[in-house]
Design brief:
By secondary structure, the protein is α/β, with parallel strands linked by helices. It has 8 helices and 6 strands, in the order E-H-H-H-H-E-H-E-H-E-H-E-E-H. The protein has 2 domains: about 130 residues, 3-Layer(aba) Sandwich (Rossmann fold); about 50 residues, no CATH class. Helix 7 links the parallel strand 4 and strand 5. The C terminus is likely disordered. The structure holds magnesium ion (MG).
Length: about 210
Amino acid sequence: MRNDSNVVVGCDLDGVISDIVRQLVRFSRSKHSVSITKRHIVSENIETCTSLQREQLHDFFQNAEFFRSLPMVPHSRVLLARLKAAGCSVHIITDRFWYEGIRKDTTDWLVRHRIPFESLVFARKAEKQDVAKSLNAHFFIEDQLSNARLLAPLCRVLLLDRPYNQGELPDQVTRVNDLKAAVDLIVEWTRGLDLPHTSQRAPLRCPA
Ligand SMILES: [Mg+2]
């Protein structure tokens, strides 16, 4: 097993560490009396597969309470700690730009839930691949198929299986059941030292 910290893992936040779908179900009921279940969410574009309107979704995401009270995906803390123990540095990369103060709320949430991470980077969808490249990421854990496709040319992507991310995958993307399965694979590949190719650009400083 590697005992240094040069195995770099990029990790998405919402839908991977935070259970944003559960929060959407909860807020839909309590704020708009709209009854949806996890099974209804079969697309990244939630307004296309539920009765929620785009404006209602924006109301959720611009409400600080939505992000402050997000439930954590069970065992995330332990699983990410396992990656760290295996010699990986975990960089959390998230596309959260919904309101002023969301960076502090996000950092506070990660600290409160004792999530181990090396850095937290805020990056728009189109910038995520640039961040992965700058970090020289070997692996990336994602829940959105569109992001996985963008990241595939840069590193090995572990896509957590969800009803909303079904579709054809590039070679560099591996579909796994859950975060535990993603961590198991990364630890296994890290042990073998046969790491996927990465770019040689200098690491990006965390802007958060
Ligand atoms: Mg996500």
